[in-house]
Write a structure and sequence with these properties.
This protein is α+β, with helices and mostly antiparallel strands and 411 residues long. The chain folds into four domains: 49 residues, no CATH class; 83 residues, conserved putative lor/sdh protein from methanococcus maripaludis s2 fold (Beta Barrel); 65 residues, OB fold (Dihydrolipoamide Acetyltransferase, E2P) (Beta Barrel); 102 residues.
Length: 411
């Protein structure tokens, strides 16, 4: 009897403890210490059915953006490797031993800057000898010319004398022998004048020959000074002091970094929208800001193997990272529309061949088909279906159906 009473007492205590625990769980927040009474809303949320119904009444959480009026441009995108305006291999025009190298790789040089020199001592000795021979020949030429002029004067005098004696012979004043002697003397003077004429011509030819030889040696001496043909940077040096080189040996590579060119190849369809002088953005991998360039020319032909058209973009870059060979992304602006309707690109949904967005209409979402235009970055142009000021759902629309109730969660 006592054991049965003890069991009944234990069961009664257990029932009271269970009832008290259920009461505390329903009316107090047991995670807090000390436990705090639950609010009515929190107490309701413990009921799964009521919580789901409350969320359904609140609507699907979405983020919205307001359609704006603004400008947007169309672009043709491509990639390229930059190239220099000029990139040449500088070679020697003379043979000899390298006496000095005056620039290193990476150095900027102006047009006409001396890059290296060859040993020119032997050429200078030959030049001095040639000049001395030229001076001597000119003296000989001058002497021969003076003698010739003297002979010409004597000939004129002798001719006059012969004429006078011929007249006197006709009057019987002189003998035939005297006239014949004078005529022989005139003939001898004329022969001497011809000889002097030959000497003068030979001296003239020799002067011209020596002048040409001197000019040739001077040119050879000039070729021992290796000069930059234009302003640019030394991209490679292939010569050392003391090296013996021959004509046409490569010495340096020189490139002009300004301007630079990007040759892009676009489809035939895109090429129809590209024109000379259109603006283009050239972005180097890792660079923060693009460089603005211009379309310089568009090839008039289509490559029959690739079906592409070559477009040459010209740019002036102050950033030294933009250099020949660098990989860049090119974006050519082909057209701009002003005052058009713009929305975020992430709002657009494409499904079953239809393009649409969800527009917040009061508390509900309205599915709206749209016709899109240009895209630029995160923005897209809407040609029809949406007007400026419409609230466009940009997040959460994947769970929406036409007419669903919505709840805005972004500020």
């Amino acid at each position: 009897m006592q054991s049965r009473t003890a069991v009944y007492g234990f069961l009664a205590v257990a029932a009271l403890v269970g009832a008290g625990g259920w009461y505390l769980q329903q009316n107090y927040d047991l995670k807090a210490w000390p436990p705090k009474p639950k609010t009515k809303a929190a107490a309701k949320s413990d009921k799964p059915g009521e919580e789901a119904k409350a969320k359904e009444d609140e609507g699907v959480p979405v983020e919205i953006s307001v359609a704006q009026r603004g400008a947007i441009s169309s672009h043709v995108l491509s990639t390229a490797n930059l190239r220099a305006l000029r990139n040449v291999e500088i070679k020697s025009q003379a043979a000899g031993v390298v006496r000095s190298v005056l620039v290193e790789e990476g150095a900027y040089v102006s047009a006409g800057k001396e890059l290296a020199t060859l040993d020119d001592r032997e050429l200078k000795i030959n030049l001095e000898q040639g000049r001395q021979q030229l001076a001597q020949t000119r003296v000989q030429l001058e002497s021969a010319a003076i003698l010739r002029e003297k002979n010409q004067a004597q000939i004129e005098h002798k001719r006059a004398e012969v004429q006078r004696n011929a007249d006197a012979l006709a009057e019987g004043l002189v003998s035939e022998t005297d006239v014949t002697l004078l005529r022989n003397q005139l003939a001898e003077l004329e022969l001497d004048e011809k000889r002097q004429g030959v000497v003068v011509k030979e001296s003239q030819y020799r002067v011209e020959e020596l002048e040409n030889e001197i000019a040739r040696i001077e040119m050879q001496i000039a070729q021992t000074h290796i000069l930059a043909p234009f302003a640019g940077r030394i991209t490679q040096r292939s010569v050392e002091v003391g090296q013996t080189i021959t004509a046409a040996d490569p010495l340096f590579n020189l490139a002009s970094f300004d301007p630079l060119y990007a040759d892009v190849f676009v489809s035939e369809l895109d090429s129809r929208r590209v024109r000379e002088n259109q603006s283009a953005e050239i972005l180097l991998e890792g660079a923060e800001e693009p460089v603005i360039g211009r379309v310089e020319r568009v090839s008039p032909v289509v490559d029959n193997q690739t079906g592409t058209v070559k477009v040459t973009v010209r740019l002036h870059a102050t950033n030294p990272a933009y250099r020949p060979g660098a990989f860049v992304r090119v974006r050519i602006q082909t057209d701009t529309r002003e005052e058009t309707t713009l929305i975020p690109k992430r709002a657009v949904i494409e499904r079953d061949g239809e393009t649409f967005v969800f527009v917040k209409d009061g508390e509900t979402a309205r599915r709206q088909a749209v016709e899109l235009g240009y895209e630029d970055g995160d923005a897209v142009e809407v040609r029809s279906g949406v007007s400026a000021g419409d609230q466009i759902i940009v997040a959460g629309q994947g769970k929406l159906k036409d007419g669903d109730k919505t709840r805005i969660v972004n500020s």
